[in-house]
Amino acid sequence: MNFQIADWIVLCVTLLGVIAFGVYKSRTSKNLEGYFLSNRQMPWYLVLLGIMGTQASAITFLTAPGQAYTDGMRFVQYYFGLPLAMIVICISFVPIFQKLKVYTAYEYLENRFDLKTRTLTSFLFLLSRGLSTGISIFAPSLILHSMMGWDIYVTNIIMGGLLIIYTVTGGAKAVAYTQQLQFIIIYAAMFLAAWYALDALPDGVGFTDALHIAGKSGKLNVITTGTTENGFDWNDRYNIWSGVIGGFFLALSYFGTDQSQVGRYLTAKDTRESRLGLLLNGLVKVPLQFGILLIGCLLFSFYCFFQAPVFFNKAQESIVLKSNYAGAYSAAESEYALLQKSKLKTVQELAVAVKEDNEQKINRQRAALQQLENESNAIRKKVKDIVKKANPGSDVNDTNYIFLHFVGEVLPKGLVGLIIAIIFLAAWGSIAAALNSLASCTMIDFHKKFSKKALTEAQEYKWGKLYTLFWGVFCIVIAFFAYNLGNSLIEAVNVLGSWFYGTILGIFLVAFYFKHIKGNAVFYAAIVAEVIVISVYKMEIMSFLWLNLIGSVAVILFALLFQLLLPVKATKS
Amino acid sequence: MSNNQEHSNWNNWYIAVAVVLVLLIIFFYFFTQHFA
Lengths: 573, 36
Fold this sequence. Notes:
The structure holds two protein chains of two kinds. By secondary structure, chain A is an all-alpha fold. Chain A has 22 helices and two strands. Chain A has a two-stranded antiparallel ribbon with strand order 1-2. In chain A, helix 1 packs parallel to helix 17, helix 8 packs across helix 12 and helix 10 crosses helix 19. The longest helix of chain A has 48 residues. By secondary structure, chain B is mostly helical. In chain B, 92% of the residues lie in helices and 0% in strands. Classes of the chains: A mainly alpha, B mainly alpha. Chains A and B meet through helix 5, helix 9 and helix 12 of A and helix 1 of B.
């Protein structure tokens, strides 16, 4: 990618500006409530931006447009369960967390069940969040390393290290204020990128024409039902049912029991401000995600008029071109370029047919376009096989590189720097919240709970800062390991998350809705549920979104059963 | 504000969020159909 001086200036000024703003806003009371919860003084809009900034990582902004380009917009259905989850959290979770004035979600579990259930869930959170935060540093760094040729270790340190400055200094307050600034910059830059995508289309081709081209190629498939001739496909990842039901349980688990999110709405002034932040997140999340995916569809239409690379990861491509497979790769590339010419002719005729409102002609061009799209996909698949053969350890998924390729090709000087800056800012928003929550759980659920030495407020504050620093360094080390171990670690971390989320949610649901169930019954139920979730995962019979539902339901059913079967004394702890 | 009033205020919020979701899904359905 051609990165010029103007881009460097924009990138450096944006990043340094955010760090300076974070440090400037970091004055807070020197105790744990000030450091981890901003003295519970945050208004709803900062809670809202905190929740959104924590959820949206760098990969969200890189993957979503590429996902729409390759697979269409059906990914948005993944978020359909989120607004419903917000309602349940507002009704059941928020009032209890606020009333008990907890620091961490897991603190409540000791109150409701026993110490071992609290410690187990907090430990599972630390394990999965600590590792996944390392990966969320590594994943965007790897993309920048491939696209820009930057050193992976330096990029990892900038991606995961600079934010430590304001996260350690200012705790939750600095995290909240920087997330506000990051949100404004990120969405302004994405809007500009969409504007340029439209502007780059040939003369006479407007927004609706671009939508018709994407739609007739099957990319505007926002609502899908997941049914095939053989009935419902349980392995289909994104459809309205997995989105509403699976997405509901995933969002309930993430926003209700993951401390990186709970910690955001615990900073609110009162129950009202927490609820407003969560409900507004429910209202705006789906349309915003729709907007980001729509950018991907505009990119698709753009690349119908201009030559798209057959494979977007240029770093991998250069490895193939130096290998014995260079000839096969170049042949596929030529085949793809030839297909592009037919595509250009078809979309031009389609644009005319749409303008004339000629139904017959539209149907003919639609069929031709879909045929060409199938052929394109077949060539891309062949190319990915070639890449895999040339470099067996490589990741052949180039979805994350599509948006950045477009940025490098079309966006003007300066704006490229801004887009690279938003990758860092989006990463910082979620990593900073994760570090804050990892430190609060370590301090509240482990250090304060198990240390025999009583600490003064000042000492607690100092330990809070030290734990934030520790987790920051830990996550960067994981990012370094991820580079050396490759895809295996990333996959392992993703799997780990989907294994535990449903079970943790099940424990909380039992706590809220089944008042007669006691500690031991839920503890053993959680262990059985975990075995079931892992078995279902290993059998590969359904998409990961359903694992959350299975885990939660299994905990509830087994807890009810154990409460009946276990002697009364054993169920109490 | 009395407890009942506050309760009903929040219920209105919850209904509004659910209604917006349903309207969005309906809009997406027609959006998909229109451009397909």
